[in-house]
């Protein structure tokens, strides 16, 4: 990239000479980290085409989590033995048929749900559809609208609008912080992201859920960016419906199936808009008339994606003996430390944090907005901010870029170390420091 001059790259080894203070601090924090050994449960080898041969600092687990060690062997066994040799018998003998609810019960403790409240399958988008239409069908007769988080990840908005058209309701986008003031007795439900994918802001799940309930509306939460990163407390906060993906902080793999949570007391009233045969009370009766299965099974649709489901099940073993509360403690310490290092290494005015400094409102990522000059549209496409991320990746620090100016760094406490955080901030400082002077418009 032409705008970023060549400067010596960091080696990735801890260099105590130049940036002694932060590097020493990182080493101390890693030595005291009770989750440090959990990192060994993940494959963090260098990519085969990596020039230096060093492993990357991987800060993109909020998009695609890292491969947990046990998954490859488990999937090889599923393919060679369960599918290759047992074939059709595996639906019963290998537990394929019951995998969606069995794996749902394994995710449940991580999101504060009791058994029988979570079912795994389909994509997040499809589960949003089930939850929104299922929620509207349970809402009061006079309801005329659905509220949608105005800052939502786009798929939620697209699906909510389509679901609203199908049910004759209107959609009203509302900032999460305004939902308590905007909800009315005409609101069927609100669909809200627990953590904002762009800024990393944590929304007030208990407070918003309470406010919705006081107005008689249901609370539907998208947990994609919180599940596996922080405690959610679905049962404790009486959330009605929730969905989430499993390929981010749950490390289930690319395209891993999503999940649907239905509050226990609502399950018998839940009418799926996708009542496939797997959600029937007696699927193998092949009855032409539909009768929903009892409980969470009615959230199923068709034949589950067994290879992906069982990869996810193996991936969840990385959580053995790990409490979500200790993950949260480490996540906040990592993001605090990264922000400290950014302040120490990055020249003033080049980036500002979009992620709240207050722990109460912070998820498990840090989003840095680049100065307007770096974010400005340039002829031929990507803003310079996008090229900054490309350069970071080239130097072995993997985050991602979101238009127009956001550098995102996701922190997955199961495998991210404090040394990773220090190295990422140091390389960011080198890349941004090598740019020609820009006006200081972004500091703050
Ligand atoms: C908040 C949120 N919801 C939904 C999705 C994606 O949905 P799907 O799993 O259907 O691709 C994402 C990310 O891809 C997301 O960040
Ligand atoms: N789901 C993804 C995919 O299939 C390909 C690339 C990225 C994704 C993502 O998860 C994007 C992500 N939800 C985000 O927060 O931007």
Describe this protein's structure:
Belongs to the kynureninase family. Its cofactor is pyridoxal 5'-phosphate. Its EC number is 3.7.1.3. Catalyzes the cleavage of L-kynurenine (L-Kyn) and L-3-hydroxykynurenine (L-3OHKyn) into anthranilic acid (AA) and 3-hydroxyanthranilic acid (3-OHAA), respectively. Pathway: Amino-acid degradation; L-kynurenine degradation; L-alanine and anthranilate from L-kynurenine: step 1/1; Cofactor biosynthesis; NAD(+) biosynthesis; quinolinate from L-kynurenine: step 2/3. With 444 residues, this protein is of the alpha/beta class. The chain has 2 domains: 158 residues, Aspartate Aminotransferase, domain 1 (Alpha-Beta Complex), CATH 3.90.1150; 249 residues, Aspartate Aminotransferase, domain 2 (3-Layer(aba) Sandwich). It is 33% helix and 12% strand. The chain has 13 helices and 13 strands. The chain has a 7-stranded mixed sheet, with helices on both faces. A 4-stranded antiparallel sheet has the order 9-10-13-12. Strand 5, helix 8 and strand 6 form a beta-alpha-beta unit. The radius of gyration is 23 Å and the shape is globular. The two termini are 28 Å apart. The site of (2S)-2-amino-4-(2-amino-3-hydroxyphenyl)-4-oxobutanoic acid has 3 residues, from loops.
Assign an overall shape: globular
What would you say the CATH architecture of the largest domain is? Answer: 3-Layer(aba) Sandwich
The portion of residues assigned to helices is 25-40%
Q: Rg, please?
A: 23 Å
Mean pLDDT across residues: 93
Enzyme class: hydrolase
InterPro entries: Kynureninase (IPR010111), PyrdxlP-dep_Trfase (IPR015424), PyrdxlP-dep_Trfase_major (IPR015421), PyrdxlP-dep_Trfase_small (IPR015422)
Modified residues (N6-(pyridoxal phosphate)lysine): 248
Pathway: Amino-acid degradation; L-kynurenine degradation; L-alanine and anthranilate from L-kynurenine: step 1/1; Cofactor biosynthesis; NAD(+) biosynthesis; quinolinate from L-kynurenine: step 2/3
